[in-house]
Structure to design on (276 residues):
């Protein structure tokens, strides 16, 4: 009833499930949407984070076991203390991130918006889970790495060169970006491909936001220059930064989903322009 290829495909799916890959991720790997090496790297990072999380939880349990008196109260106080320390460290790391990544000429009101796509102050509320605490540790490691800081600084400098910041208000930018994000998220949830009309229309709208009045309608040369600049700034470290942030701030997970589709769509459009 089944061909050898179909049986092999099933075995491969079962193997990937054993290694804790998600169904959606497996589907995209088999379809070739995610390179296998990249998916493996992501999974290794996820497992490293899980190991750190489990080690942290184990340490709390061991300390509780050694305590005298009400173990549950001691455990509660210990976790409260860890959470408070984590939030203070989080603020310190974010301040360090902003001071090290952004040049002095980069407008202060744009820093939070550009780096994460959201207002950081809205993410600092509530306790951090064990997994978020482990992600925070990893984020701190990243910003102690001069190479990663250089890459991120180069990324924001490129943004400063492309965007006509004085001509775009933070409010207008936020509203337009939210609209584009919702459109792209809806397309991603419906498994739209990078070449689909709805995704490509979204890309055009996004690029239009960066064009000056003298550059309207957007020419192919402007689109190419803009797209190539964005794609050239992508790196493994920047992707890792986004993945860590999506764990630390669950509200960014939908941003990760649309971000990937966005860059795939940009790449597809450039390939089509090359053929023409």
């Amino acid at each position: 009833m089944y061909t050898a290829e179909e049986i092999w495909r099933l075995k491969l799916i079962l193997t990937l499930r054993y290694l804790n890959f998600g169904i959606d991720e497996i589907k995209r790997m088999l379809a070739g949407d995610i390179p296998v090496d990249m998916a493996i790297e992501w999974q290794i990072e996820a497992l490293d984070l899980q190991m750190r999380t489990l080690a942290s939880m184990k340490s709390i349990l061991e300390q509780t076991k050694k305590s005298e008196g009400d173990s549950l109260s001691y455990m509660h106080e210990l976790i409260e203390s860890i959470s408070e320390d984590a939030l203070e460290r989080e603020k310190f790391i974010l301040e360090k991130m902003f001071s090290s990544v952004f040049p002095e000429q980069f407008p202060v009101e744009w820093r939070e918006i550009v780096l994460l796509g959201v207002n950081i102050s809205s993410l600092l509320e509530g306790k951090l889970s064990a997994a978020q605490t482990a992600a925070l540790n990893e984020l701190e490691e990243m910003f102690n790495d001069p190479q990663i800081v250089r890459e991120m600084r180069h990324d924001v400098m490129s943004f400063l060169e492309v965007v006509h910041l004085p001509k775009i208000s933070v409010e207008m930018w936020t509203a337009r970006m939210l609209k584009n994000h919702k459109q792209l998220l809806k397309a991603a949830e419906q498994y739209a491909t990078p070449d689909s009309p709805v995704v490509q229309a979204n890309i055009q709208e996004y690029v239009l936001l960066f064009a000056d009045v003298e550059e309207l309608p957007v020419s192919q040369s402007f689109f190419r220059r803009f797209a190539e600049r964005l794609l050239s700034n992508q790196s493994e470290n920047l992707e890792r930064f986004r993945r860590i942030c999506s764990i630390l701030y669950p509200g960014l997970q939908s941003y990760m989903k649309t971000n990937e589709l966005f860059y795939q769509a940009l790449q597809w459009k450039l390939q089509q322009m090359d053929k023409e």
Q: What stands out?
A: Residues 35-275 form one domain.
